[in-house]
Structures are given as C-alpha cells and as structure tokens.
C-alpha cells in the first residue's frame, strides 16, 4: 500500500470514527443539562414526575455515555496513530486544551459515578442535584476544550514557523484563536438543542403509542421549550459563524455558497444542483450573502476566483450547508408553534400529525449535527492546519490502515446495534406507569 | 531538577495509577468470567460488580490522561510511536470497547449473558498484553527507519523472547494484583466465601508473577546491555520490591491484615515500576528518542504543569469523595443498595 492509499483510508477511518462519536458525544454534552433542569423543576414544584424524568433519562444516558467514552478514546488515540505528523506539530502548540479536556472528562466521570449510585442515599434531593452540576459542567467544558483544538486547525496561531522550526509558542494565544468563540458557542448550543429535540421526540413517540400519561406531556412541553430557546441561540451563533468565515476563511464560505466570482451585492443561493460547474435550479436571494457575511447588502464578498485551484474545498459542501440550515430553521419554527399553541390552547399542536413531526425532530437534529460537522471539516480541505500543513503531509506512513478501517467499522456496527437494543429493552420492560406505581408502593411500605 | 524529569515523572505516575486500577479491573473481569463458566453460583459477581460499577469510567480516564499527556510533554513521540503502534493500539482500542460497553450493556441490558462475560474476561487478559507491547518496543531493536519514517518489524517482534516474557508478566501481574485487592475488598464486605476464593487465587498467582518479573531482568542482559547495567545500579530498589512481595504473600498466607497486604503489594510494584522507569532514562525509544530531544517548548511545558496542578486541585478532593462514598463506605461495600 502506497502513501496515497494510507492517506485515503486514514481520512475515511477518521471520518467514520468522528461521525459515529459525535452522535453519542452530542447527547453526552446536552443531556446532563436536561437532567439537571428536570431534577431542579421537580424539586421546585415538588412534582414526582420530573424527578422520575431525571432518573429515566439518566439511565438511558449511561448507555450513551459508555459508547461515547469508548469511541472518544478511539478518536483520541487515532489522531496520533493516523496523523502522527500533525500531532507532533500540534502537540507543541495545542496540547494545553487537549490536556484540559481530559481533566474536564475526569471530573465528569467521577461525579457521574457518584450521581448514579447515590439515588436515595441523601435524604435531601437538593444535595443530589448538586452532584449534577459538575457532571453538566464537565460535559460542557470537554466540548469547549476539544472544540478549541478544532478551531485551532481552522485558524492556527500562537507560534511562528522559522525554517521549519516552531518558535515563540504561546499556548494561550493558540487556544483563543479567532475561530474559537463562534465554533465553541455553536457546538455547545447545538448540542443542547439536539438533546432537547431527541428527548422531545421520545416523549412524543410514547404519547403517539397510546400512553396518555401526564408524565409524557410534561416531558414534551419541557423539552420543546428548552429546544426552542437553544435553537434560536444556535441560529444566532450560526449567523456569527458566517461572518467569521467571510472575514477569516472566505474560501469555505464561498464554496458552501457556490460564490464563484468576487462581487458586491452578492446573492445567496438556496438549494440547487451543480451541472458542469454552473449552479442550476437554485433560488437566488439578492443581497442576502452580503448581508450574511457583513450585515451590509452592498458589501463585497470574496469568491472562489481569488484562490488557487488546489486550495479550494470540494463544492458539494453546499448541500451539507443547506441541509443543516434547513433543519435548524424547521425545528425552530416547529418548537415555536408548539410553545405558542400550548399557551394559546390551539387544538392541532396536541394532535397526532403534529406529534409525528416532533418525533421526526430527533433524528433530523442528529442529521443536522452530522452535516454541520462534515461542512466544517470538508470545508477546510485540503488543509489539516489551514494555510500551514496539508492533509496529505500529516498522514501516517503505516501500511495497515485499510485493515484497521474494516476492524473499526465492525466495532461501530456492534456498538450501534448493542446500544439501540439495550435502550429499547430498558424502557420497554419498565414503562413509566409501572415505575410510578412501584415507587408509590415502596413509599407506602416505608410509612406503615 | 530538569523540567523534562518533572514531565516524565508526572506521566509515569499516571501510568502507574493506571497499572494498578487497570489491573484490578482486568483481573476482576477475568475472575468473574471464570466463575460464571465454572458455575460457582456467582460467588464473586456481586463483589466485583459493586466495586467496578462506579469506577470503570474513572479507570479509563487514567489511560486517556497518559496518552494525551505524553503527546503534550513529548510531541515527538507522536511521530515515532504513532506510526509504529497503529496495529497493536487499534487492537487494544477494540478490547477497551468491549469492556467499556460491557458495564452499561450488562448492567442494564443482557444481565448474565455468558458469551459477553466470556469476551469481557478474555479482553481483560489480552488488553494489558497488547498495551505492554509498547514496553517491548521501547527497548529498541524492533524499529528501523525507512526513508526517515519509522517502521516496525513485526517478525522480529513476534519471535523475540523479550516480547513473550513481557506478555506473560502482564498477564500474571494483572491476575495477582487483582486477586490481592479483591481479597481485601471481599473481606471488608464480610463475604467469607469470596474472600477465601480470592485469597486462593492470590496465592496461586503470586509465584508466576514474581518469576516472570525476574526473568525480564535476565532477558534485558542480552537484549539491551546498556539498560541492564543501569538496572543493576538500582539493585536496591528491586531488592526492596522483593521484600514487599514476600510481605504480601506472608500476610495472605496467615490470613491477616489484608489491607496491609494490599499496601505492601502497591509498594512492591511501585518500587519495581519506578526502578524500571529510572533505568530507562534518558531514552523514550531506544536509540531514536530521548527525553531531551523530544521535549516540548518551554511555554507549553510550563502551562501544562500549571494546568496539571490546578487540575489536581480539582481531582484529588473529587476522587477522595468517590472513595469515601463507595470504596470506604461500609454500607455500600456490604451491599446496602440504594440504586433505584
């Protein structure tokens, strides 16, 4: 196997591992916050339903955490195994957030263990709630630190390269690179949003399947409300990300928008297909790209004509961009209508076709997460460190990458099937109605 | 003291931490599976599950901490070890995946699934072996440079007696460490049946573990003379280690003070592990990579050490809390479940 092959398979394996990992990682970042909110609401309202909600979410969460930890360890080591040259260079500049990420992870792991195994040990549920704070913080901060590393790959800074030698390294400057604020904020808020919509989709599914329990209705309303808040936040931050790209990474924005020539009053192309290098069947909105990029309809937006051909990312990222934005918009509108409908007592939001749309929201938001990451990652090709190191220079020289790809593909299939089967069985065997009556019986026994 | 030494000491300490808690974890999985397969009425299952459930994730972090730390302090190791370790570490990752998912899937899903328990037990033996390949490779002689790129010679690695000695050492040490710890833990839980079983295992595995360990030293004489000589300068560390080994075995034999037996075991392995580490100085990968030519720039080293100290400030109290609530909590150890 030549080096070309090693590069190709390394890219596929990294993409496979990350695409699989982010599903569980996103849930891992977002769900602790949701559990914390449910537990808190339960204590405040003295409502047993919310406490039970927190417990049941936590039990499912453990399964996803296990797979998240396993795949996270895999990608952590694969970075070094598949991209040794990149890690050698990056280790010099960006090791600090990588190191801090493991601390955040450590912190989360300890308190998650404690939280899981002390359900009824504290008389005061507030004490138990306190244990969730480090879990949620640890989860969010691992996302923050690891996204800092990714942001650095898009906007490397904090060092000087003199004759191939790294000098004047400043780890703090490397961490707080220009890509960091928008990337970190977008990742964290979209994780909260996705988790809320996944949990909403479970609640809606149970209601559709015949259970008419108040518990599911409370769950649905809570998750949709949180989902609405974070989808608005995600959209706002997404807009900032567009402005960041226009300023610092114009080739990514231009490729995502099929903006070929540098112009003022640039139009935005929605949807469409590319035929022989020409966009067809798209909807062109005048001035919109200039507004997106600079908040000014007359602003000049850099096009792909400004870049040498071997530095332009693949143009298919336009489709990814459209899918991500369309899903984001759709879910914002859906959750807004639901929230307003409940307030105003509109009948249709509690109808079954509306619930079906909510059920779809969970899988859709995961698709949005995946397409968003593919857009961000493919959009910086051909660079692994933008403007500094090409992906081809970073790959391993090892001969066995294709075999490893096969090995890991099998592993992920087993993990995916395993986690779904276990999760389904867990909740099928023990529906809310049963658990609630069990708990009430236990309490009565204690009192008598 | 050089900042390089500080860096490697920190990392070595974390590796030692992983060695101990990882061994307990791997060995426990093996004993558990062995017990299930021989239908001993799940004598150990309860004890083992009680200990492992709250800490399995923490165990894993020790490993993550080490490999992230070594890239941070010694980025050049990424180039050498990253390139040559693709296959062994990928296999280790696969085994780790089996273990990590086991806890969650087993506890909540297929409780008592024999096939899975068996795979889990087996992975516990193969994992330390696949990870300890790194120790073999670091001795030199298995890697050569081809147009500036490191290449691992699998054939030489496979036929080397050193490889197999370290392989055997890792297995016997895992079973021994785990058995001693679980004897103590079962004793604390006042589970006499489990205590007796684990004590028997501990005594069975004590002799093979010390024989394999001593044979490594003998092997090194032929494989890497320079390393062997430095090892001999530290003879007193290994002699002390041997004394602690005798202490542990005697306490186990006399059925007393299992807590001290475990502490003496830690001392035994700490002395041997640090003795080995110090004698490896200054090489990370003989003869290509030393501590000094692979060390990161000063700014990164200082910020990593600051982050490390701050992080420990957070971690030590949290770990203490974890230990107090589970490991050293009489009610929990004895099995007063409060997990709904």
3D architecture notes:
The complex is a heterodimer of chains A (448) and B (340). With 448 residues, chain A is mainly alpha-helical. Chain A contains 14 helices and eight strands. In chain A, helix 3 (84-116) runs antiparallel to helix 4. Chain A is globular and about 75 Å long. In chain A, 51% of the residues are buried. The mean pLDDT of chain A is 85. Chain B is mainly α. Chain B has helices spanning 3-37, 45-52, 56-73, 76-84, 86-108, 114-138, 154-159, 161-188, 192-223, 225-233, 235-253, 258-280, 298-327, 330-334, and strands at residues 143-146, 149-152, 283-285, 289-290. In chain B, a hairpin with a 3-residue loop joins strand 3 (283-285) and strand 4 (289-290). In chain B, helix 6 (114-138) crosses helix 8 (161-188). Chain B is globular, with a radius of gyration of 20 Å. The N and C termini of chain B lie far apart (52 Å). The model of chain B has no long low-confidence stretch (mean pLDDT 81). The interface between A and B is large, with 76 and 67 residues.
**How many helices of chain A in DSSP terms?**
14
Shape of chain A: globular
The side-by-side strand order for the widest beta sheet of chain B comes to: 1-2
The low-confidence parts of chain B are: none
How many β-strand stretches of chain B?
4
- Oligomerization status of the protein chains: heterodimer
Q: SSE string of chain A, helix = H, strand = E?
A: HHHHEEHHHHEEEEHHHEEHHH
Helix and strand composition category of chain A: mainly alpha
**What is the radius of gyration of chain A?**
24 Å
Question: Mean pLDDT of chain A, as a whole number?
Answer: 85
What is the N-to-C order of secondary-structure elements of chain B (H for helix, E for strand)? Answer: HHHHHHEEHHHHHHEEHH
Strand order of the largest sheet of chain A: 1-2
Give the strand tally of chain A: 8
Largest sheet of chain B: 2 strands, antiparallel
For the CA atoms, what is the radius of gyration of chain B? 20 Å
* Mean pLDDT metric of chain B: 81
Number of separate helices of chain B: 14
Strand content of chain A: 5-15%
Distance between the termini of chain B: 52 Å
Q: Tell me what portion of residues of chain B adopts beta-strand conformation.
A: under 5%
Helix content of chain B: over 70%
């Amino acid at each position: 196997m030549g080096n070309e092959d090693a590069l190709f398979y390394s890219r596929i394996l990294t993409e496979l591992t990350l695409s699989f990992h982010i599903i569980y990682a996103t849930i891992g970042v977002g769900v602790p916050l949701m559990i914390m909110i449910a537990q808190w609401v339960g204590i405040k309202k003295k409502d047993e339903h919310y406490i039970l909600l927190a417990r049941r979410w936590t039990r499912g969460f453990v399964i996803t955490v296990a797979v998240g930890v396993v795949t996270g360890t895999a990608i952590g080591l694969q970075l070094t195994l598949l991209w040794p040259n990149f890690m050698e260079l990056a280790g010099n500049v960006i090791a600090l957030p990588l190191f801090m990420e493991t601390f955040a992870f450590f912190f989360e792991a300890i308190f998650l263990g404690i939280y899981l195994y002390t359900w009824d040990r504290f008389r005061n549920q507030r004490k138990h709630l306190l244990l969730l704070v480090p879990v949620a913080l640890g989860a969010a901060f691992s996302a923050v630190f690891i996204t800092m590393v990714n942001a650095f790959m898009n906007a490397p800074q904090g060092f000087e390269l003199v004759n191939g030698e790294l000098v004047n390294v400043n780890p703090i400057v490397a961490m707080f690179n220009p890509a960091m604020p928008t990337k970190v904020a977008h990742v964290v808020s979209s994780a909260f949003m996705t988790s809320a919509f996944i949990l909403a989709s479970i609640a809606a599914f149970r209601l559709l399947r015949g259970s008419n329990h108040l518990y599911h209705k409370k769950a649905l309303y809570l998750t949709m409300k949180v989902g609405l808040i974070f989808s608005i936040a995600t959209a706002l931050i997404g807009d900032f990300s567009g402005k960041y790209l226009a300023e610092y990474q114009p080739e990514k924005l231009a490729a995502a928008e099929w903006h070929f020539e540098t112009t003022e009053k640039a139009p935005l192309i929605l949807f469409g297909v590319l035929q022989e290098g020409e966009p067809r069947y798209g909807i062109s909105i005048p001035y919109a790209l200039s507004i997106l990029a600079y908040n000014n309809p007359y602003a000049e937006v850099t096009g792909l004509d400004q870049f040498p051909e071997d530095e332009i990312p693949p143009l298919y990222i336009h489709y990814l961009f459209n899918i991500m934005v369309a899903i984001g918009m759709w879910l914002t509108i859906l959750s807004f209508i639901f929230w307003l409908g409940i307030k105003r007592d509109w009948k249709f939001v509690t109808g079954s076709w509306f619930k079906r749309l909510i059920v779809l929201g969970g899988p859709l938001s995961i698709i949005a997460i995946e397409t968003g990451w593919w857009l961000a990652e493919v959009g910086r090709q051909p660079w692994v460190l933008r403007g500094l190191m090409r992906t081809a220079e970073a790959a391993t020289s090892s001969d066995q990458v294709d075999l490893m790809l096969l090995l890991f593909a099998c592993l992920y299939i087993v993990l995916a099937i395993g986690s779904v089967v276990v999760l389904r069985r867990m909740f099928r065997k023990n529906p809310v109605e049963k658990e609630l009556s069990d708990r009430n019986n236990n309490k009565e026994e204690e009192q008598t | 003291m050089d900042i390089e030494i500080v860096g490697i000491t920190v990392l070595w300490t974390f590796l030692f931490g992983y060695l101990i808690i990882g061994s307990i974890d791997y060995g426990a999985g093996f004993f558990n599976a062995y017990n299930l397969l021989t239908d001993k009425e799940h004598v150990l299952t309860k004890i083992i599950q009680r200990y492992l459930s709250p800490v399995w994730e923490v165990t894993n972090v020790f490993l993550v901490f080490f490999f992230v730390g070594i890239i941070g302090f010694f980025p050049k190791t990424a180039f050498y070890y990253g390139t040559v370790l693709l296959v062994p570490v990928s296999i280790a990752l696969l085994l780790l995946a089996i273990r990590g998912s086991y806890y969650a899937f087993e506890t909540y899903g297929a409780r008592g699934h024999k096939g899975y328990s068996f795979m889990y037990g087996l992975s516990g033996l193969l994992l330390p072996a696949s990870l300890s390949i790194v120790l073999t490779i670091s001795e030199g002689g298995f890697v050569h440079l081809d147009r500036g790129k490191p290449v691992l010679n699998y054939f030489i690695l496979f036929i080397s007696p050193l490889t197999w000695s370290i392989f055997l050492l890792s297995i016997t040490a895992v079973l021994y460490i785990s058995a001693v710890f679980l004897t103590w833990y079962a004793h604390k839980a006042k589970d006499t049946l489990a205590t007796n079983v684990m004590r028997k295992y501990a005594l069975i595995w004590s002799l093979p573990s010390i024989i394999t360990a001593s044979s490594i030293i003998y092997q090194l004489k032929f494989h890497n003379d320079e390393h062997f000589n430095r090892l001999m300068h530290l003879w007193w560390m290994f002699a002390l280690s041997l004394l602690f080994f005798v202490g542990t075995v005697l306490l186990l034999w006399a059925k007393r003070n299992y807590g001290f037996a475990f502490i003496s075991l830690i001392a035994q392995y700490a002395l041997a592990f640090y003795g080995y580490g110090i004698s490896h100085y200054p090489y990370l990968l003989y003869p290509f990579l030393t501590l000094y030519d692979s060390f990161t720039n000063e700014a990164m080293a200082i910020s990593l050490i600051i982050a490390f100290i701050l992080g420990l400030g957070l971690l030590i109290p949290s770990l203490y809390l974890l230990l107090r609530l589970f490991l050293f909590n009489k009610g929990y150890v004895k099995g007063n479940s409060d997990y709904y």
